[in-house]
Specification:
The complex is a heterodimer of chains A (160) and B (211). Chain A has 160 residues and is an all-alpha fold. Chain A has helices spanning 2-24, 26-39, 43-55, 61-73, 77-90, 95-108, 111-124, 129-142, 145-155. The chains are: A mainly alpha (160), B mainly alpha (211).
Protein backbone atom coordinates (compact mmCIF):
# COMPACT_ATOMS: atom_id res chain seq x y z
CA UNK A 1 0.00 0.00 0.00
CA UNK A 2 2.79 2.39 1.06
CA UNK A 3 4.91 1.49 -1.95
CA UNK A 4 1.99 2.07 -4.27
CA UNK A 5 1.36 5.48 -2.71
CA UNK A 6 5.00 6.46 -3.18
CA UNK A 7 5.01 5.38 -6.85
CA UNK A 8 1.76 7.20 -7.57
CA UNK A 9 3.15 10.27 -5.84
CA UNK A 10 6.28 10.19 -7.97
CA UNK A 11 4.27 9.83 -11.17
CA UNK A 12 2.02 12.71 -10.13
CA UNK A 13 5.01 14.88 -9.33
CA UNK A 14 6.63 14.05 -12.67
CA UNK A 15 3.45 14.89 -14.57
CA UNK A 16 2.86 18.10 -12.61
CA UNK A 17 6.48 19.21 -12.97
CA UNK A 18 6.46 18.60 -16.71
CA UNK A 19 3.14 20.35 -17.17
CA UNK A 20 4.25 23.28 -15.05
CA UNK A 21 7.44 23.53 -17.02
CA UNK A 22 5.61 23.48 -20.33
CA UNK A 23 3.04 26.03 -19.23
CA UNK A 24 5.18 28.41 -17.19
CA UNK A 25 8.38 28.15 -19.20
CA UNK A 26 7.05 27.70 -22.72
CA UNK A 27 9.92 29.59 -24.27
CA UNK A 28 12.41 27.23 -22.64
CA UNK A 29 10.69 24.32 -24.38
CA UNK A 30 11.12 26.11 -27.70
CA UNK A 31 14.70 26.93 -26.80
CA UNK A 32 15.48 23.26 -26.04
CA UNK A 33 13.89 22.23 -29.33
CA UNK A 34 15.95 24.84 -31.19
CA UNK A 35 19.12 23.71 -29.45
CA UNK A 36 18.43 20.07 -30.30
CA UNK A 37 18.02 20.98 -33.97
CA UNK A 38 21.18 23.09 -33.80
CA UNK A 39 23.15 20.18 -32.32
CA UNK A 40 21.81 17.94 -35.10
CA UNK A 41 22.97 20.57 -37.61
CA UNK A 42 19.45 20.99 -38.92
CA UNK A 43 20.07 24.69 -39.31
CA UNK A 44 17.17 25.68 -41.53
CA UNK A 45 14.72 23.97 -39.20
CA UNK A 46 16.26 25.56 -36.11
CA UNK A 47 16.04 29.15 -37.36
CA UNK A 48 12.24 29.61 -36.96
CA UNK A 49 12.47 28.41 -33.34
CA UNK A 50 15.18 30.93 -32.47
CA UNK A 51 13.30 33.66 -34.35
CA UNK A 52 10.09 32.93 -32.47
CA UNK A 53 12.02 33.09 -29.21
CA UNK A 54 13.20 36.59 -30.05
CA UNK A 55 9.68 37.60 -31.01
CA UNK A 56 8.47 36.38 -27.63
CA UNK A 57 11.07 38.54 -25.95
CA UNK A 58 13.30 35.65 -24.90
CA UNK A 59 16.42 37.79 -24.83
CA UNK A 60 19.10 35.31 -23.88
CA UNK A 61 22.33 36.44 -25.61
CA UNK A 62 22.96 32.95 -26.93
CA UNK A 63 19.76 33.04 -28.99
CA UNK A 64 20.89 35.98 -31.11
CA UNK A 65 24.35 34.50 -31.36
CA UNK A 66 22.93 31.17 -32.54
CA UNK A 67 20.71 32.93 -35.04
CA UNK A 68 23.68 34.85 -36.46
CA UNK A 69 25.71 31.66 -36.61
CA UNK A 70 22.88 29.80 -38.37
CA UNK A 71 22.36 32.54 -40.95
CA UNK A 72 26.08 32.37 -41.66
CA UNK A 73 25.86 28.60 -42.01
CA UNK A 74 23.13 28.92 -44.64
CA UNK A 75 24.95 31.90 -46.21
CA UNK A 76 22.13 34.36 -45.60
CA UNK A 77 24.59 37.18 -45.10
CA UNK A 78 22.07 40.02 -44.84
CA UNK A 79 20.22 38.35 -41.97
CA UNK A 80 23.49 37.31 -40.37
CA UNK A 81 24.60 40.95 -40.53
CA UNK A 82 21.40 42.11 -38.80
CA UNK A 83 21.80 39.49 -36.08
CA UNK A 84 25.43 40.36 -35.39
CA UNK A 85 24.71 44.10 -35.46
CA UNK A 86 22.08 43.48 -32.79
CA UNK A 87 24.54 41.42 -30.74
CA UNK A 88 27.11 44.18 -31.03
CA UNK A 89 24.59 46.68 -29.67
CA UNK A 90 24.22 44.47 -26.58
CA UNK A 91 27.91 43.62 -26.31
CA UNK A 92 29.86 46.51 -27.80
CA UNK A 93 33.15 45.26 -26.35
CA UNK A 94 32.90 41.71 -27.65
CA UNK A 95 35.88 41.39 -30.01
CA UNK A 96 34.73 38.10 -31.50
CA UNK A 97 31.41 39.67 -32.54
CA UNK A 98 33.24 42.62 -34.11
CA UNK A 99 35.51 40.31 -36.07
CA UNK A 100 32.60 38.19 -37.24
CA UNK A 101 30.64 41.26 -38.27
CA UNK A 102 33.67 42.66 -40.10
CA UNK A 103 33.97 39.35 -41.95
CA UNK A 104 30.30 39.55 -42.93
CA UNK A 105 30.76 43.13 -44.20
CA UNK A 106 33.76 41.92 -46.19
CA UNK A 107 31.76 39.10 -47.76
CA UNK A 108 28.99 41.56 -48.56
CA UNK A 109 31.53 43.82 -50.28
CA UNK A 110 31.11 46.63 -47.76
CA UNK A 111 34.84 47.26 -47.47
CA UNK A 112 34.54 50.61 -45.74
CA UNK A 113 32.65 49.16 -42.78
CA UNK A 114 35.02 46.17 -42.72
CA UNK A 115 38.01 48.48 -42.52
CA UNK A 116 36.36 50.65 -39.86
CA UNK A 117 35.63 47.63 -37.67
CA UNK A 118 39.07 46.05 -38.01
CA UNK A 119 40.69 49.41 -37.33
CA UNK A 120 38.59 49.74 -34.19
CA UNK A 121 39.53 46.26 -33.00
CA UNK A 122 43.19 46.89 -33.80
CA UNK A 123 43.19 50.03 -31.67
CA UNK A 124 42.98 47.78 -28.63
CA UNK A 125 44.94 44.83 -30.07
CA UNK A 126 47.67 46.46 -32.10
CA UNK A 127 49.95 43.41 -31.83
CA UNK A 128 47.43 40.98 -33.28
CA UNK A 129 49.07 39.95 -36.56
CA UNK A 130 45.99 38.08 -37.75
CA UNK A 131 43.94 41.26 -37.51
CA UNK A 132 46.55 43.19 -39.48
CA UNK A 133 46.28 40.58 -42.26
CA UNK A 134 42.48 40.76 -42.24
CA UNK A 135 42.63 44.54 -42.42
CA UNK A 136 45.21 44.32 -45.21
CA UNK A 137 42.86 42.04 -47.18
CA UNK A 138 40.00 44.51 -46.80
CA UNK A 139 42.26 47.39 -47.83
CA UNK A 140 43.40 45.40 -50.87
CA UNK A 141 39.79 44.71 -51.83
CA UNK A 142 39.06 48.43 -51.53
CA UNK A 143 42.05 49.19 -53.73
CA UNK A 144 44.11 50.91 -51.03
CA UNK A 145 47.24 48.89 -51.81
CA UNK A 146 49.73 51.11 -49.99
CA UNK A 147 47.89 50.85 -46.66
CA UNK A 148 47.44 47.12 -47.23
CA UNK A 149 51.20 46.72 -47.74
CA UNK A 150 51.85 48.57 -44.47
CA UNK A 151 49.59 46.18 -42.55
CA UNK A 152 51.05 43.08 -44.22
CA UNK A 153 54.51 44.30 -43.23
CA UNK A 154 53.39 44.83 -39.64
CA UNK A 155 51.85 41.34 -39.61
CA UNK A 156 55.16 39.93 -40.82
CA UNK A 157 57.04 41.78 -38.10
CA UNK A 158 58.57 44.20 -40.57
CA UNK A 159 57.26 47.46 -39.17
CA UNK A 160 57.84 50.30 -41.61
CA UNK B 1 1.17 7.46 6.98
CA UNK B 2 3.63 10.00 8.41
CA UNK B 3 6.41 8.25 6.53
CA UNK B 4 4.49 8.54 3.27
CA UNK B 5 4.04 12.26 3.79
CA UNK B 6 7.78 12.54 4.52
CA UNK B 7 8.69 10.70 1.33
CA UNK B 8 6.20 12.79 -0.61
CA UNK B 9 7.69 16.03 0.77
CA UNK B 10 11.23 14.93 -0.07
CA UNK B 11 10.13 14.01 -3.58
CA UNK B 12 8.52 17.43 -4.06
CA UNK B 13 11.67 19.11 -2.79
CA UNK B 14 13.87 17.10 -5.18
CA UNK B 15 11.53 17.85 -8.08
CA UNK B 16 11.56 21.53 -7.22
CA UNK B 17 15.34 21.64 -7.17
CA UNK B 18 15.44 19.71 -10.44
CA UNK B 19 12.90 22.04 -12.04
CA UNK B 20 14.51 25.29 -11.00
CA UNK B 21 18.09 24.31 -11.65
CA UNK B 22 17.84 22.30 -14.84
CA UNK B 23 15.16 24.05 -16.81
CA UNK B 24 15.61 27.65 -15.86
CA UNK B 25 18.49 30.00 -15.58
CA UNK B 26 20.85 31.05 -18.29
CA UNK B 27 20.85 29.46 -21.70
CA UNK B 28 24.15 27.77 -22.24
CA UNK B 29 25.54 28.01 -25.70
CA UNK B 30 28.96 28.12 -27.20
CA UNK B 31 28.94 31.85 -27.55
CA UNK B 32 32.38 33.38 -27.37
CA UNK B 33 33.00 36.08 -24.84
CA UNK B 34 35.14 39.14 -25.01
CA UNK B 35 37.86 37.44 -23.01
CA UNK B 36 38.25 34.49 -25.37
CA UNK B 37 40.76 34.29 -28.18
CA UNK B 38 39.20 35.92 -31.20
CA UNK B 39 41.03 33.84 -33.76
CA UNK B 40 40.58 30.09 -33.79
CA UNK B 41 43.82 28.20 -34.29
CA UNK B 42 42.48 26.71 -37.51
CA UNK B 43 42.04 30.21 -38.93
CA UNK B 44 45.54 31.42 -38.16
CA UNK B 45 47.25 32.62 -41.33
CA UNK B 46 50.77 31.25 -41.68
CA UNK B 47 53.59 33.70 -42.35
CA UNK B 48 54.36 32.41 -45.84
CA UNK B 49 50.75 32.92 -46.87
CA UNK B 50 50.71 36.48 -45.56
CA UNK B 51 53.96 37.12 -47.44
CA UNK B 52 52.44 35.68 -50.60
CA UNK B 53 49.49 38.05 -50.27
CA UNK B 54 51.95 40.90 -49.70
CA UNK B 55 53.87 39.94 -52.86
CA UNK B 56 50.64 40.07 -54.85
CA UNK B 57 49.57 43.43 -53.42
CA UNK B 58 53.03 44.85 -54.15
CA UNK B 59 52.62 43.81 -57.77
CA UNK B 60 49.13 45.38 -57.88
CA UNK B 61 50.74 48.59 -56.58
CA UNK B 62 53.30 48.23 -59.39
CA UNK B 63 56.11 47.93 -56.85
CA UNK B 64 57.48 45.06 -58.90
CA UNK B 65 61.00 44.95 -57.45
CA UNK B 66 59.71 44.57 -53.92
CA UNK B 67 57.13 42.06 -55.11
CA UNK B 68 59.80 39.83 -56.65
CA UNK B 69 61.87 40.03 -53.45
CA UNK B 70 58.85 38.74 -51.50
CA UNK B 71 58.17 35.99 -54.05
CA UNK B 72 61.79 34.89 -53.76
CA UNK B 73 61.47 34.69 -49.98
CA UNK B 74 58.33 32.56 -50.29
CA UNK B 75 59.90 30.25 -52.87
CA UNK B 76 62.94 29.80 -50.68
CA UNK B 77 60.63 28.49 -47.98
CA UNK B 78 58.26 26.66 -50.34
CA UNK B 79 60.08 25.81 -53.58
CA UNK B 80 57.21 23.73 -54.89
CA UNK B 81 54.67 26.51 -54.64
CA UNK B 82 54.29 26.70 -58.41
CA UNK B 83 51.40 29.15 -58.31
CA UNK B 84 53.65 31.67 -56.59
CA UNK B 85 56.40 30.95 -59.10
CA UNK B 86 54.03 31.61 -62.00
CA UNK B 87 52.97 34.88 -60.39
CA UNK B 88 56.61 35.84 -59.93
CA UNK B 89 57.27 35.11 -63.60
CA UNK B 90 54.34 37.33 -64.58
CA UNK B 91 55.67 40.10 -62.33
CA UNK B 92 59.08 39.78 -63.95
CA UNK B 93 57.41 39.97 -67.35
CA UNK B 94 55.55 43.15 -66.37
CA UNK B 95 58.88 44.60 -65.22
CA UNK B 96 60.22 43.99 -68.68
CA UNK B 97 62.54 41.22 -67.48
CA UNK B 98 61.29 38.80 -70.10
CA UNK B 99 64.33 36.51 -70.00
CA UNK B 100 64.08 36.08 -66.24
CA UNK B 101 60.34 35.50 -66.54
CA UNK B 102 60.98 32.88 -69.16
CA UNK B 103 63.65 31.13 -67.08
CA UNK B 104 61.31 31.10 -64.09
CA UNK B 105 58.48 29.61 -66.14
CA UNK B 106 60.80 27.01 -67.63
CA UNK B 107 61.62 25.72 -64.14
CA UNK B 108 57.97 24.80 -63.60
CA UNK B 109 56.64 21.43 -64.79
CA UNK B 110 54.30 22.11 -67.74
CA UNK B 111 51.37 20.34 -66.08
CA UNK B 112 51.61 22.79 -63.17
CA UNK B 113 51.35 25.85 -65.40
CA UNK B 114 48.01 27.56 -65.81
CA UNK B 115 46.66 28.25 -69.30
CA UNK B 116 47.84 31.85 -69.33
CA UNK B 117 51.38 30.84 -68.38
CA UNK B 118 51.46 28.04 -70.94
CA UNK B 119 50.41 30.53 -73.63
CA UNK B 120 53.03 33.03 -72.46
CA UNK B 121 55.72 30.38 -72.43
CA UNK B 122 54.69 29.17 -75.89
CA UNK B 123 54.91 32.73 -77.17
CA UNK B 124 58.42 33.14 -75.77
CA UNK B 125 59.48 29.85 -77.39
CA UNK B 126 58.05 31.09 -80.70
CA UNK B 127 60.01 34.36 -80.51
CA UNK B 128 63.11 32.24 -79.86
CA UNK B 129 62.14 30.06 -82.83
CA UNK B 130 62.07 27.02 -80.55
CA UNK B 131 58.99 25.65 -82.28
CA UNK B 132 59.54 22.12 -80.99
CA UNK B 133 59.03 23.46 -77.45
CA UNK B 134 56.11 25.73 -78.33
CA UNK B 135 54.09 23.14 -80.27
CA UNK B 136 53.29 20.74 -77.40
CA UNK B 137 52.29 23.68 -75.20
CA UNK B 138 49.87 24.98 -77.82
CA UNK B 139 48.47 21.50 -78.45
CA UNK B 140 47.96 21.09 -74.72
CA UNK B 141 46.01 24.37 -74.61
CA UNK B 142 43.85 23.35 -77.56
CA UNK B 143 43.22 19.91 -76.09
CA UNK B 144 42.00 21.55 -72.91
CA UNK B 145 39.90 24.12 -74.74
CA UNK B 146 39.19 23.44 -78.43
CA UNK B 147 37.76 26.97 -78.70
CA UNK B 148 41.08 28.53 -77.75
CA UNK B 149 41.39 30.16 -81.17
CA UNK B 150 44.43 32.21 -80.20
CA UNK B 151 46.38 29.05 -79.39
CA UNK B 152 45.09 27.33 -82.52
CA UNK B 153 46.05 30.32 -84.66
CA UNK B 154 49.57 30.35 -83.18
CA UNK B 155 49.83 26.62 -83.83
CA UNK B 156 48.69 27.11 -87.43
CA UNK B 157 51.30 29.82 -87.94
CA UNK B 158 54.03 27.79 -86.27
CA UNK B 159 53.26 24.76 -88.46
CA UNK B 160 53.39 26.88 -91.59
CA UNK B 161 56.77 28.34 -90.60
CA UNK B 162 57.94 24.74 -90.23
CA UNK B 163 56.66 24.08 -93.77
CA UNK B 164 54.10 21.62 -92.42
CA UNK B 165 51.48 23.19 -94.63
CA UNK B 166 48.91 20.39 -94.60
CA UNK B 167 48.77 20.38 -90.80
CA UNK B 168 48.68 24.17 -90.74
CA UNK B 169 45.78 24.27 -93.20
CA UNK B 170 43.81 21.86 -91.00
CA UNK B 171 44.18 24.26 -88.07
CA UNK B 172 43.25 27.33 -90.15
CA UNK B 173 40.17 25.56 -91.47
CA UNK B 174 39.15 24.63 -87.95
CA UNK B 175 39.32 28.30 -86.94
CA UNK B 176 37.53 29.57 -90.04
CA UNK B 177 34.83 26.99 -89.61
CA UNK B 178 33.91 28.67 -86.33
CA UNK B 179 34.97 32.23 -87.21
CA UNK B 180 34.23 32.62 -90.95
CA UNK B 181 34.17 36.42 -90.72
CA UNK B 182 37.73 36.74 -89.42
CA UNK B 183 39.46 38.29 -92.43
CA UNK B 184 42.91 38.41 -90.86
CA UNK B 185 42.88 34.66 -90.27
CA UNK B 186 41.54 34.06 -93.78
CA UNK B 187 44.35 36.13 -95.31
CA UNK B 188 46.94 34.10 -93.39
CA UNK B 189 45.17 30.93 -94.48
CA UNK B 190 45.32 32.08 -98.10
CA UNK B 191 49.03 32.70 -97.69
CA UNK B 192 49.62 29.14 -96.46
CA UNK B 193 47.52 27.79 -99.32
CA UNK B 194 49.78 29.72 -101.65
CA UNK B 195 52.95 28.38 -100.02
CA UNK B 196 51.60 24.87 -100.37
CA UNK B 197 51.08 25.44 -104.11
CA UNK B 198 47.28 25.73 -104.03
CA UNK B 199 47.24 29.07 -105.83
CA UNK B 200 43.66 29.03 -107.08
CA UNK B 201 42.34 28.11 -103.61
CA UNK B 202 44.44 30.90 -102.16
CA UNK B 203 42.99 33.38 -104.65
CA UNK B 204 39.46 32.27 -103.80
CA UNK B 205 40.14 32.81 -100.14
CA UNK B 206 41.69 36.21 -100.73
CA UNK B 207 38.69 37.24 -102.80
CA UNK B 208 36.49 36.50 -99.76
CA UNK B 209 38.44 39.02 -97.72
CA UNK B 210 37.82 41.85 -100.18
CA UNK B 211 35.12 44.38 -99.34
Amino acid sequence: MKARTVIISFVCIAVITTLAYRIIKQEWVVYRRAETLYQKKEYKKAIPYYTSLLEKGFRQPVVLSRLGELYLEISDLDKARLAYEEILKNEPLNMWVRITLADIYMRLGDYKRTIDLYTLVLSSQSDNRHLHILLARALTAKGDFESAITHYRIALGEKQ
Amino acid sequence: MKKTVKVFSIAIAISGIFFFTTYTGTAHGQQKDAGESIVPKSDQIPGWKARWELARVLSYAKRYNESVVEYEKILKEKPDLYEAKIEMAKTLYWMGKKDEAFRTLEEIPVEKLDGQSQAALAEIYITQKRYDKAEPLLRRLIAKNPNDYKARFKLAELLSWNKRYKESIVEYEAILNDLPEDKQVRRKYALVLMWSGRHSDAAAQLRKTLP
